[in-house]
Amino acid sequence: xxxxxxxxxxxxxxxxxxxxxxxxxxxxxxxxxxxxxxxxxxxxxxxxxxxxxxxxxxxxxxxxxxxxxxxxxxxxxxxxxxxxxxxxxxxxxxxxxxxxxxxxxxxxxxxxxxxxxxxxxxxxxxxxxxxxxxxxxxxxxxxxxxxxxxxxxxxxxxxxxxxxxxxxxxxxxxxxxxxxxxxxxxxxxxxxxxxxxxxxxxxxxxxxxxxxxxxxxxxxxxxxxxxxxxxxxxxxxxxxxxxxxxxxxxxxxxxxxxxxxxxxxxxxxxxxxxxxxxxxxxxxxxxxxxxxxxxxxxxxxxxxxxxxxxxxxxxxxxxxxxxxxxxxxxxxxxxxxxxxxxxxxxxxxxxxxxxxxxxxxxxxxxxxxxxxxxxxxxxxxxxxxxxxxxxxxxxxxxxxxxxxxxxxxxxxxxxxxxxxxxxxxxxxxxxxxxxxxxxxxxxxxxxxxxxxxxxxxxxxxxxxxxxxxxxxxxxxxxxxxxxxxxxxxxxxxxxxxxxxxxxxxxxxxxxxxxxxxxxxxxxxxxxxxxxxxxxxxxxxxxxxxxxxxxxxxxxxxxxxxxxxxxxxxxxxxxxxxxxxxxxxxxxxxxxxxxxxxxxxxxxxxxxxxxxxxxxxxxxxxxxxxxxxxxxxxxxxxxxxxxxxxxxxxxxxxxxxxxxxxxxxxxxxxxxxxxxxxxxxxxxxxxxxxxxxxxxxxxxxxxxxxxxxxxxxxxxxxxxxxxxxxxxxxxxxxxxxxxxxxxxxxxxxxxxxxxx
Length: 755
Description:
Blueprint: H1 2-20, E1 35-36, E2 39-40, E3 46-47, E4 59-64, E5 70-75, E6 78-84, E7 89-95, E8 97-100, E9 116-117, E10 120-122, E11 128-130, E12 135-140, E13 143-149, E14 156-162, E15 180-183, E16 191-198, E17 211-218, E18 238-245, H2 252-257, E19 268-272, E20 279-283, E21 287-289, E22 297-299, E23 314-318, E24 321-325, H3 343-386, H4 389-398, H5 403-406, E25 408-409, H6 412-418, E26 427-430, E27 434-440, E28 446-452, H7 457-472, E29 481-485, E30 492-496, H8 503-508, H9 518-538, E31 543-544, E32 553-555, E33 561-563, E34 570-571, E35 579-580, H10 592-597, E36 599-600, H11 602-618, E37 623-625, E38 631-633, H12 634-643, H13 653-658, H14 661-674, H15 685-724
Parallel strand pairs: 3-4, 25-29
Antiparallel strand pairs: 1-2, 4-5, 5-6, 6-7, 7-18, 8-9, 8-17, 10-16, 11-18, 12-15, 12-17, 13-14, 13-16, 19-20, 21-22, 23-24, 26-27, 27-28, 28-30, 29-30, 31-34, 32-33, 35-36, 37-38
Membrane topology: Single-pass type I membrane protein
Protein name: Protein kinase domain-containing protein
Catalytic activity: L-seryl-[protein] + ATP = O-phospho-L-seryl-[protein] + ADP + H(+); L-threonyl-[protein] + ATP = O-phospho-L-threonyl-[protein] + ADP + H(+)
C-alpha cells in the first residue's frame, strides 16, 4: 500500500513538472519555470513569479491557448519564439502591416472594419532594441510605398515595390523592387511606425495582387514564397523579428561601480554590446553556464571532452583550464604531442641537428654566392646589350680612329664607389638626358659621371653617338670623355671634371663675388666659337653639335669655355651639306630654318651660337619675361633693337658702364649676322672666330697705345712681357687671349656702326 502511494506521488510530480515546466535546469533560478511550451526561458528572463526574472523588463507571461498548448508572450501582442543567452537576442512574432483594395480601387471594407492596417510597435525605454544586423525591412506588392519611422520621427526608412505582371516570390528571389523590396534598419531602433500607401487605383493588378504587406523579418528566416502576391491578410501573418537585449543600459565601468545592481555572476566578464545600448555578461574561458546567475558559470572538465580539448598524455582538470602531461618516458607538450626519445637520443639528435644545420647554412650560403655571382654576370651581360654595347662594338670595329678604342670601359662597381653609391649630395646637375654626379676614382682623379635617366632605343643611340664623337675629338675647349660603363642598369659616361659650373649660372644667377667682366665674356665667346669652328671644319669628319646653349658651355678652373653634351650631335661624311632629322633642340636656341625644313646644317649651330652671344651681351635668358610678364624670344627682340639702333637699351649695365662701346657694337653685329633667318646669309663659325679674335686684337692695340702715351716705352715693354707670360687679368684695360690668334688682316664680317 505504501509502495502504491509512493508510485502515485512520483507520477503526480512528473505530471506537474510537465505542465508547469519547473525543473532544476542550471540556466534558471531554483523553483522557477524552465520553459513555456517549446520555448526555454533562461535567466535573466523569468515567468510565473517576479523573483524568477532579473527585473520587470525581463518578466514574461506564459498563457494557455484554446487547444491546450502554452504560448510565451514577450509583450501582450508579441509571442516569444526563441531566447538566446549567447547572442543576447529574443525572437518574437509581429503582425505585418497591410493595405488591401476592392474592384473599385478603394480600400476594401468588406470583411474587416478597415483593410488598411498600419503597424505601430514600441519596445519602451528598457534594454531592448530591434537588431539592425539580423532584421531587414521588407515590402511585398505591385504598387507599394512602405515607410517606417521611429516613435519620435527623428529617423525613417522605406522602399518602393513595383511590378506589372505577377512576380514569383521565392527564397532565392533577389527582391530588388519587382514584386518586393527591402532595406536595412538603423542601429539602436526601439520603436517602429509602419505605413503603407498605394500610388495607383490598384485595379490593374487587383487580380493577382489584392493586398500589399510591409513587415520586419529576420534575414535568416525570411522566405518570400510565404508572401505570394495573391496573399490576403489574417491575424496569423506574423513575421519573425529579432530583438537584441542587454543586462542594463550602462557601460561596464558604470555597472561595476554599483555592485548591488551588477548583473554578472562570478567567473564572468562584462562585454559592451555592439549596438552601443548597454552591457552583457559572458563566462570566462574555461567556464560554461548562465553568466547572469550568481554561480551560473561553472568550470568545464576539459578531460571529459577530448574532441574539443586535445590531450596526448594524462589529462588533469584545473579551474578554468586543464593540464596534459606526457606519460613516463615521453616528452613534449601533451596538448600538442608527446615524443618517445630518451635524453641521450635527444642530445645526439640536437648535436646532429645543429651540425647539419650549420653545414646546410654554409652550403646554402656558398650556393647563394655562386648563384648571385652568375646572376650578376648575366645581369651585366643583359645591361650591356640593353645599353647598346653591341652597337658600340660595331662602331669600334668600323671606326678608323684610334680614339674610340682608347676610351676606358669602367665597371659598375668602380663608379658606384667613386660616387658614393650615386649619393644625392654628389649631384652636379640634372637634365633631360640624365643626372651628373661628382666622383673620385681610385687613383684620386676627380671626374663627372653622367647617369642616363632612360634607356629607350633613341636615347641609346644618342649615348653611343656621344661616346663615339667625344672619343675622336681632341680640342682644349671641348669636354674630354674618359670612359663609359655599359654593364649598369642605365648607361654611364665619365668626363673630366669641370669645376666652375655652366655659363648659364654665371649669367643668370649672378655671383656678386665674381662677376663676369667684358674680357671674360669675349674670352668665352671666342673659345666657344673656336671649338665649334674646329667641329665644323678642322675635325677629321665634320660634326654638328645641335644643342649649343649656355647650359652646355662649362667653365674650368681658369674660366676657359668647355663645350659639353654631345648626345644629339651628328657627324657627316665629307660630301654631306646637311642632316635631315626629326626636329629637336632647346626652345629659344632652335634655328627657325631648321624648324621649318627639318634640315640641320652647320649654320644651325651658328644660329644657336648667336643666341649665346646675345646672352653674353644682355645677360638675358633665351626666353625672357618683360615687366608685364609677357614671354619673348631673346633672338627676335635683340634683332629688332639692332634694326632700331637701340641695342644699348638691352645691353648689360656692367658692360655699358665699363667697356668700349665700339667693341660691344662689333660683337652685337656678329650676333645679328648669326641670327639671320636665312641660313645662307649667316657667317661660318670660322669667320665668327676670326672676327671675334680681331675685336680682341684691336682692343689690345688700343690699350698698348694708351699705355705708351702715359708711361713710355719702358712701361710698354713691361706690358708686352706680361702678355708673353700668358697673363689672366680680367680688366677692360689689360686682356690676354688664351687662344692662337688668326692673322690681323682678316676682314670683319660686318662694318662697325655707331649707334
